[in-house]
Amino acid sequence: MSKRLKSFIFLFLTLIYSNIFAQEVCKGALGDPVININFGSGSTQFAPPLSTANTNYNYLAGTPNDGQYTIAKSTNGMYNSTRGWHQIPNHTPNDPNGYMMIVNASNNPGIFYQAVIPNLCPNTTYEFSAWIINVLNYVENKPNITFTIETTSGNILHKYETKDIPESATPTWIQYATTFKTENQTDLVLKITNNGPGGGGNDIALDDITFRACGPVINTIINNGKSDISVCEGSITTYKLGANIIENYNNPAFVWQKYDGVNWQDIANETNSELNVSLTNAAVGVYKYRLLIAEQENIGSVNCRTASQPFTITVNPKLITIAVNSGKVCAGGTVQLSATNGESFSWTGPNGFTSNEKSPVLSNVQANMAGIYTVTATKDGCTASSSTEVTLEPPVVPINDKSVSTCEGQPIQLLVNGGTTYKWFPTTGLSDINISNPIATLKETTTYTITVSNGTCSATTTLTVNVLKNAVADAGNDLFTITGKGVVLNGKVSGDSVKYYWLPATYLDDATKLNPIATPPSDITYTLFAESTLGCLSSSDEMSVKVQPQINIPNTFSPNGDGINDFWTIPALDTFPDARIKITNRYGNLVYQNNGPYSPWNGKSQGKDLPTAAYYYTIYLNEDFPIFSGWVFIVR
């Protein structure tokens, strides 16, 4: 088995046993220990042996063998090996010179420690507890301890068994505890028996055996709130200390005590369940109180009483805090505030400033941030306030307006003030970049950054010049159409806030649209007007609509010389000087071609009459018209 797996098993078993066997402690309030067996303390490594009345094991001032014990500060040097004992100190808290009982179990199980427990109170519940550790660092025989509480006549009053105490990878002290009632007994005998065999393992250390009176659960309350409070030196107030007792005695009695720094002392005549504590000009210190409870007949005995958790009233020294800042600053600079003392802080200041930091930072300080800043510091129930003033060096006054507007190409005078020197960037369109009021002539919206200085401080601000675009009209290209057929005008405008219209409005479906439909009977020129509503420049642009006659193509003619319909005539082609005509027979052979100017066809090909048949034509007028195609029939 690997060391890591062993360690995990040790730790796992230790946690299980700790949870199972260390949980029978008193659930209510405990009194002070009436019995506290911690085996004493001293300057030497080993203490003298116990009385033979306490154990029948053999004492050895060294490393004990089977059936032996020692009283020592630690196990250092005892069976120190990988299969040996943990090297541990005693258990008693804050007592490095304290002793513990170290037991190497006998081969035969039996009692290894016993003691008379005197002066207990009759019919009182006590908590018994002891701290035990299995000192082995490897797996072997396990201790199994039984605690027996008997009367002096040998009658068993209570018995409690730990079951097997496992080894652990790391030294682990475990508190074993149980509660019992004395009934009518006052003197008892504690016997501790190791039920496991010795010879291989079963070695323990024992320390801090206590008996404490166990009473009901007592929840402490100060002024109906928490039981620990902090106040400030010089306070004048009264606190009501009380307790919520979950389970009552049959006939409970109370005694209040105050801690004098060394011992708890009874407070004369304070025998109620509540206590009023008055602080007048409270002095610095920690004031502790507690409530003792017992049955009426037992309240006079310190061995019978249980005690609440202490009520603690801590009076803290007056708090002094001083608010400071890092000094004068130019506009746009940084100031750090700071308070000298406190645990929590609350700052307030101009322009709605708040902060809970001890040393908040003011960034980009402006004129409206100058003034008094006050901090309230809090620590241990005490508060204190202090103020500091943030001041600016003679300020640089920024421009009032962050943006201005002008028309495209129209000069505008800009202005900043508050300084003695100025620098504008970029230089675009400016008459002078080193004065407070340059003239800007721009085609595009531009944001300027201006650095203003008065010799000590400088500030940077921005000014945006919004350029309003002039109104620009674009009537589009000239268009062609056929008589009676509408054509869409391709008007466009640009600029900011532009209105537009066409003139003349004649033959337009809507002269206020950019793309009206024009249906003129003859050639016409239209003008698109674009006007700026912002007072910027306006413009206009012309375009023409040329109107061509309709193209009517006959599909039959009779070139027989009778003077009627002897030619294939297309009247409108006279207006198209570049018209091109091609005619083929049904086999695709070219029989006629005319490449302008237009001449009507007489039905001949190369001077010969063509027979009656259908012939196929294509007619190209110009790039503004599609190619016409179809057939024409010659009748003879």
Describe the protein's architecture and organization.
It is a single chain. The chain has 1 helix and 48 strands. It has about 625 residues and is an all-beta fold. The strands form 13 sheets. Strands 1, 2, 3, 4, 6, 9 and 11 form a 7-stranded mixed β-sheet that branches. Strands 13, 15, 16, 18, 19 and 20 form a 6-stranded mixed β-sheet that branches. The protein has a 5-stranded mixed β-sheet with strand order 42-48-47-43-44, with no helix packed on it. The termini are far apart.
State the total count of DSSP E strands. 48
Oligomer: single chain
Strand content: 35-45%
Instruction: Give the overall shape, derived from the CA principal axes.
Output: elongated
Q: Radius of gyration, rounded?
A: 56 Å
Summarize the biggest pleated sheet.
7 strands, mixed
Helix content: under 10%
Structural class: mainly beta
Itemize the secondary structure elements and their pairings.
Elements: H1 3-21, E1 30-37, E2 58-59, E3 68-72, E4 100-104, E5 110-117, E6 125-134, E7 144-151, E8 156-164, E9 174-181, E10 188-194, E11 203-214, E12 218-222, E13 228-232, E14 237-245, E15 252-259, E16 264-266, E17 275-279, E18 285-295, E19 306-307, E20 311-316, E21 323-325, E22 335-339, E23 344-349, E24 353-355, E25 361-362, E26 371-379, E27 382-390, E28 403-407, E29 412-413, E30 421-425, E31 439-440, E32 446-453, E33 458-468, E34 472-474, E35 479-482, E36 487-488, E37 492-494, E38 498-503, E39 517-518, E40 524-532, E41 539-548, E42 556-557, E43 580-584, E44 590-594, E45 604-605, E46 608-609, E47 613-620, E48 628-634
Parallel strand pairs: 2-3, 13-20, 28-33, 35-41, 42-48
Antiparallel strand pairs: 1-11, 3-4, 4-11, 5-10, 6-9, 6-11, 7-8, 7-10, 12-14, 14-17, 15-16, 15-18, 18-19, 18-20, 21-22, 22-25, 23-24, 23-26, 26-27, 29-31, 30-32, 32-33, 34-37, 36-39, 38-40, 40-41, 43-44, 43-47, 45-46, 47-48
